[in-house]
Amino acid sequence: MREGNGLRSDSRLEAAGRTGAALSRSRWILAPLAFALALLGAALVEVDRRQTHGAGSPPAVSWILFGLAALALFFTVANPKNLVPATSSVRGLTEKTGRRALGCFAASALLAASSVPLFVRLNDSASGGEAGWGANNGSWLVYLASLACFAAGVAFWRRHEPAPERAAERGWPPTLPRQVELVVVVVLTAVALPLRFSALGSIPHGLWFDEAQNGLAGQALLAQGALHSVFIGGFTQMGALYFYVLGAGLEAVGNSIWMLRALPALAGSLTVPLLYLLASRLYGWRVGVAAGGFLAVSAWSITFSRFGLVSMVTVCLDLAVYLCVVLGLRSGNVGWYGAGGVLLGFGLQGYYAAQLVPVVLLLVLVHLVLSGGRRTVARLRSGVAVFAAGAVLAFLPVATYAAQHPDEYWKRTSTTSIFSEIGRGGEAHPLRTSLRKHLLMFNFQGDSNGRHNLPASPMLDWLTAAFFFSGLGLCLARIRSWQYFLPLAWFAAALSGGVFSLVFEAPQGNRTLENSVVTALVAGIFLGEGWRALAHRPHRRLLASVAAGGALVAVAGAAAMNVQKYFDRQANDSGVWSEMGVGALDAGRLLSRHSVRDDVWVSDSIIDQPTVRFAAPRASPSVWHGMNEFPFTGRARDVVLIVPADATTDLHLLAETYPNARFEVFRAPGGLALLTAVFIPAEDLSATHGVAHRREPDGGTRLVTVLKVETSGRYAFAWHGGRARIAVDGQAEGRKPRFLASGLHWVEIDAARGANMRSLRFGPERGALRRVDSSLLFDPTRVWPRGLQGTYRPGTSFEGPGAVARIDPQIAIEFHEPVLTAPFTAEWRGELYAPVAGRYDLGTRQIDRARLLVDGRPVLTNTSPGSLQLEPVTLSRGWHRVRMLYHALTGRFDAYLYWVPPGGPESVVPVAYLRPFPPPRSFQPPVPTLDGSDGAPPPGRVSSITG
């Protein structure tokens, strides 16, 4: 019986063994199943997204399919073990080579300590102090010398290290032969480079504010006698290191958009081979090829590689830090730890996302220690020390600045934090809202900012998204192995950069830019692991070929979708053109082209934009403060007026006043207007000047002209050589000076036969009368007083005399340079013309409060800052008294008077429909018609330019 039982037991064991072997041989079938489930989940999301246009949430079944795909691949391959770090040796440092290393480290520490007081002096100089040569230049030289000594110390140490342990013995995956790997790196880089450098100066179209500001900051650092700052405040709020490199590039090639974007393009290209090296060392060469391929063709990466911001350069440095740490863990070489630390210090001087790298590394270190115990601590301690020393040395300049000026250093972080009042954006649950939007941005609805993405489209193509979400599940299943914990920690840290920032900007493609790398890595893990599973199964050669072909098809499919998205749809999207500042770039180019021979005026809303200053660095245009600058007084040169397409300049009036003027509207694809340029010939300007003459029955001469008063105040008039009656704005002039607001005024003179304006004297007092400059006199048949007379008073009262008085042709005023400091009031009085009888909607938009009265009756009181409020008013045809009362109480001011005439569009009330006072009875200018009630120029005078 015992023998029989034994025979039965042996047969059962053999049967179980055969079953296990059969299951092992058939397990490869789960890999294609995993891919199918992942693709099906992504396809369901894509179909739902297109049907709902990104509203709502993806179908729940898609997340189930991604999870099943992860489980299927998890059971295909055995769960890997933790990779054991190599030992970073400290033996032999008392010998000759070790003494050299210690000497270099001591010199590095001494030089670094010596640079601190110099940097402190330099940072104080940025606040107005004197730097001196030692602080301005010596600080940087001593800093570079300390880094050089540190590098020499690491090199001496590295030379004396014992032979490293074999990586394969500690579980690390093998790498390709060096020649084969070089080919792989070259191919991946060859794919990445043209996608990031081709037509770099023209795609994306335009030049955004921050790109141009970066260029100006770089040029300012290297200007003659410039302060060689450590940190750039203002709009930049970043360490200066990147800007020295950028400034040197611009110094070499000039003001080139290509150069502004070259460093991010180079950094974006380098991330591809760097990611291959990182992934291949951690997971094997197949994962490296797949991850590098996905990153090379990623539209997310391409977009920011072709955008002149610091963020992509920081991402490249951060990726290099992770690679150096992994190479240090794999080889035990302290050189890799030292390089990683220095690169981290450089990265921390760039975009703020680098501050998350130490957090990720600390989490991975904790994981390593918990899984490896004291043995891991012993193996890593010297590497960690060298890494930390390198990071501290490299970050030293900005660290001193942060210690001296913490408010300025942390200003960007604090102002963009979701925990600030602005950051919450009025949301009841801002953190939950932001997290949800960021989690859905990968495959459902992405960044809506046209500078960061094709507005609202997912950040990932649906193929990459399929492998990414399934890969996340696979990493979660293998979280006990630190190499799979790394991308999870990296993903969460990178995501937090967007989740914890301004909720109204969510989702944010720039602040989460490192996830463009992480998503490619995780997608590559899923695709590469499946590829490896198929390549090691029965019929190995056939399946290996099929798996390699499938991986190539997956990356090629992602490439086709991403290239079409970026270079076709995104490059020609009107929202992208608008967000990228195409209008401002066109303005700068026009200014540069016409500034030498023409009198160029540029709107106050764009004249100081970095884009305009970068494109026209030597131009000195005049500032166009809206219709307050109308009419032009120059006669010697043509005038070019450049205004944004949405500016409230009354172009219809300009077309009427200057009959030969040309209007060019610069548009984005699809017809969106971005910029308007008006070209007025000198002969049209000259024709507006002059006097209207009329012979009177008594033989005398009546002269009527329009005088431009440049500064408000009391003025006197007199007639030289004979007697004459002078009336200004319909009131006869006496011997006492009278108050005139700045702007246009009627002047009517009854004098003897043959009289002319050369006899008119004008001045601030009777003892200082001068002949009137003919450039200030306008022909009343072409130009006459329009607008409303504004009285500006300090405080909150509308009583008493005004501190400033001027005739504002159009109530569309943005007080970039307010006439008074807050609080102040503005009262506008005059008349509004109704070209037809009927219902008119009248209203205001302002910061802070406004009231509107018509014919003495209140129309509305608007107390909602920044909100347009309209109310209906029935008006007869003709002129109606209008009064607008405005309170400016806070630090931002603007005021607009709107209308909707019968059958017309909503617009700011154009200049032609307002007058400060009636004209003289002897001269009645024509009244406006309903045409032009929106201020737009006649269509026949406008030419459109796309590009």
Task: Please summarize what this structure is.
With 947 residues, this protein is an alpha+beta fold. A hairpin with a 2-residue loop joins strand 23 and strand 24 (857-862).
Give the helix/strand class.
Answer: alpha+beta
- The whole-angstrom Rg is 36 Å
Sheet-strand content, in percent, reads: 15-25%
Helix content: 40-55%
Query: What number of domains?
Result: 5
- The termini sit apart by 95 Å
pLDDT < 50 runs, ≥5 residues: 1-9, 15-24
How many helix segments? 28
Describe the 3D structure.
The structure is a single chain. With 947 residues, the protein is of the alpha+beta class. The chain has five domains: 40-89 and 161-570, no CATH class; 90-160; 581-686, no CATH class; 689-778, Toxin - Anthrax Protective Antigen,domain 1 (Toxin - Anthrax Protective Antigen, domain 1), CATH 3.90.182.10; 788-924, Toxin - Anthrax Protective Antigen, domain 1 (Alpha-Beta Complex), CATH 3.90.182.10. It contains 28 helices and 30 strands. A hairpin with a 2-residue loop joins β11 (725-728) and β12.
Q: What's the structural blueprint in terms of helices and strands?
A:
Blueprint: H1 2-26, H2 30-52, H3 60-76, H4 96-125, H5 132-159, H6 178-197, H7 209-221, E1 231-232, E2 238-239, H8 241-253, H9 257-283, H10 285-296, H11 299-305, H12 311-331, H13 334-348, H14 357-372, H15 374-404, H16 406-409, H17 411-415, H18 421-424, H19 430-440, H20 462-477, H21 482-499, H22 514-535, H23 540-570, H24 574-579, H25 582-594, E3 599-603, H26 610-615, E4 622-624, E5 639-644, H27 651-657, E6 662-667, E7 673-680, H28 682-687, E8 692-695, E9 701-709, E10 713-719, E11 725-728, E12 731-732, E13 738-740, E14 743-751, E15 760-763, E16 770-771, E17 777-778, E18 788-794, E19 804-808, E20 812-814, E21 824-834, E22 838-847, E23 849-854, E24 857-862, E25 869-875, E26 878-888, E27 894-900, E28 907-908, E29 914-915, E30 942-946
Parallel strand pairs: 3-4, 3-5, 6-30
Antiparallel strand pairs: 1-2, 5-7, 6-7, 8-9, 9-14, 9-17, 10-13, 10-15, 11-12, 11-14, 15-16, 18-19, 18-21, 20-27, 21-26, 21-29, 22-25, 22-27, 23-24, 23-26, 27-28
Helix pairs in contact: 2-3, 2-20, 2-22, 3-20, 4-5, 4-15, 5-13, 5-15, 6-9, 6-10, 7-8, 9-10, 9-11, 9-12, 9-22, 10-22, 10-23, 12-13, 13-15, 14-15, 14-21, 20-21, 20-22, 21-22, 22-23
